[in-house]
Structure formats: structure tokens, C-alpha cells
Design a protein that fits this description.
The chain is built from ten helices and eight strands. The chain has about 260 residues and is of the alpha/beta class.
């Protein structure tokens, strides 16, 4: 019997449009224009990571995104006093706190919520107090998720990077074990009242699979979509992604999900 399942949202990360711009300098390509095109193509929200070293997204990009977007802006950021102050001033709809190291190419691993102590809890409280919905980017570890709920986060975004790497490398047993870990983490977070998001390393194939995890409410995807846009255009890339997500979600209702 077919049953109705909650919809799955798509957040599009525009960081790597800024990466291309900054490689040469100047103003083009403009990540704000990319965000607008992504919304027209079906993105439900836009994510941008203002890193401490400003290697791609810049402060002005964040301000312009906030000014023009008609969908929620998700401000991805390190859990630092500087970034908290910037977020409070900008007032995006959501903030996702992530670990950040200067030497990494992209965000590696999940936030250590357990080790964040009272300082992390206070940052979550400060952001929440001004109406910003706080998400914590975490590895699929149940103790980290439980702590995220304890300190008042509204959302956890599960780090799918390890699973995607195992899939890409053909490590079937490891991929199955990691996916099972993601599934357990998603169920645990939902049981604690957290909204569950997922992201990092997803392409159409892996997004279609994780879309079949019913507790997951949103996927945040950037690198694949911006790369695929070179060949299919941004609208085409997002259309392909939404189709894959819809197919995965439909498998829940028909009882064919893994």
C-alpha cells in the first residue's frame, strides 16, 4: 500500500561558484546569481559557508544573498565568536555550525559536540535567542547527536562523506556498514526531536539512496551540482538531482526502500 511520506527538501551550496570567481579575481561568476538560478530551478534553500580565511564566499556575498533571496539562507560557519557575531548581525534563517581547519580543502569530519562544552552550548543559545535556527554538522554518532539535542540545536546534519567515499571506491561492505550507521543516527535524532538533514559528497546516485531514509528532511549539496552544471547547466543539474531525490523518496511510500 502506498503511503504519504514527508517531503524532502534540497539545499544548494554555492561556495564553489565563488571558488571559481576567486581563482582569477574580479566579480564573475557571481555566487548570488547562481543562488537565484538555483532557486528558479527548484532549490528550497541556499547554503553558503563564510570561512574564517574567506577562501571562497566573502562577507559581501552573504549580505547580498540575504538581501535578494526569497528562500531561507543557511549560513554555514565555524563555531567562533567572530562568526556568531556576524550571523547575529546578518540574521539568516538558519546557521549550520561546522568544524573548520585552515589546511583542509573542504569540511572534514563532524563537529565535536561532546567536546564543545559550555562554550558551544552558549553559542547555540545566542543564535537561537535571535530567531536563527541552529544546525550542527555531525558524524553519524549517537552520542554526538544526543548532546546536540541537549544543548538546544534544532537540527543535525549528518556527515555523509565517509559513506559516499566508500561507495565511490567500491568498498561495498564498508559502504553498507556506514549507511546502516547513518540510518541509526537519523532515527535516533528524530526520536530526540531533532530535524535531520544530510550532506557532504552526495551525487545523484547517493542522494537517491539516502532520500529513502524517512527521518531525513533535507539534503544539502554543492560541489556535485556546481561541477555538473559545467555539462548540464545549473538548472539541468538541479532537475536531475530533484528527480533522483523524488525516486528515492517514492520508494518509502511503496515499501521498496532499503
Amino acid at each position: 500500500m502506498t503511503r504519504i511520506v514527508p517531503p524532502l527538501r534540497l539545499g544548494v551550496n554555492v561556495d564553489h561558484v565563488a571558488t571559481v570567481r576567486n581563482a582569477r579575481g574580479g566579480l564573475l561568476p557571481d555566487p548570488v546569481r547562481a543562488a537565484q538560478l538555483a532557486c528558479a530551478a527548484g532549490a528550497d534553500s541556499i547554503t553558503a559557508h563564510l570561512r574564517e580565511d574567506r577562501r571562497h564566499i566573502r562577507d559581501d556575498d552573504m549580505r547580498r544573498l540575504k538581501d535578494v533571496l526569497l528562500v531561507p539562507l543557511n549560513f554555514e560557519m565555524a563555531a567562533t565568536d567572530e562568526m556568531v557575531a556576524l550571523a547575529i548581525d546578518l540574521a539568516p534563517q538558519a546557521c549550520c555550525l561546522v568544524p573548520e581547519r585552515r589546511e583542509e580543502r573542504t569540511t572534514e569530519g563532524g563537529l565535536d559536540v561532546l567536546g564543545g562544552g559550555i562554550d558551544l552550548a552558549r553559542k547555540v543559545e545566542r543564535l537561537s535567542a535571535v530567531g536563527i535556527r541552529v544546525s550542527l554538522f555531525v558524524a553519524p554518532e549517537e552520542d554526538q547527536i544526543a548532546r546536540a539535542a541537549d544543548i538546544g540545536a534544532a537540527v543535525v546534519e549528518l556527515h555523509t562523506g565517509a559513506w559516499c567515499e566508500f561507495v565511490a571506491e567500491g568498498e561495498t561492505a564498508k559502504a553498507e556498514a556506514e549507511f546502516a550507521r547513518l540510518a541509526r543516527a537519523a532515527r535516533r535524532g528524530a526520536a530526540l526531536g531533532l530535524e535531520i538533514h544530510a550532506g557532504h559528497g552526495l551525487d545523484c546516485a547517493t542522494a537517491g539512496i539516502i532520500a529513502a531514509l524517512e527521518p531525513v528532511r533535507e539534503l544539502n549539496i554543492g560541489h556535485f551540482l556546481i561541477g555538473e552544471a559545467i555539462f548540464a547547466g545549473l538548472e539541468g543539474a538541479i532537475r536531475q538531482m530533484r528527480h533522483a531525490m523524488a525516486q528515492g523518496r517514492a520508494a518509502i511510500g511503496t515499501g521498496t526502500a532499503a
